[in-house]
Request: fold
Amino acid sequence: MTMQKRNILGIFVGLIIGLYTILGMSLFIFINLKFNSVYYAQHIPHKEGTDPDVIMLMENMGWAYTPEIEGISYDDDGSYSITREKGTKTSVLDLTGDTLFFHSESNDRYLLNRNFSVQHAFDKRYHTIKYNQRKVQKEIRETVQPVIDAQPKPLINLQWLFNLIYQSRFN
Reply:
């Protein structure tokens, strides 16, 4: 084999290895951000009332850590939902498409957008009711907080990249 063919082969092999390295790193970063999104969302600077950790938990429930916790169950067939049972009371937070649905312990129902603001509120007979936005968010947080608290710290912390990507959304 001539020297010129060896050089071309070396360059070709180097380019292939470089391409695989870049693709592998990109895949690792994507998976890291998805799996650890709830952890990162807990630590991102955000404006009051946005609750990025709850939003990331619901949006990435298929990726995020969902531990077995007594009284908590998960459903991910068609939509993502978390159900919390406390004694005889049950609350459910569900994400379908761009809409969050919350069924509170008091049997009130709320439709929220992805920015976590209530769009509609109904009682158990589907009559429109008045609501307190902060109270609803507090009830939602109580429903999902055990899952949020159980999120592990990432092995390789990419908080800076998560902040760069999502900061404008939560501010």
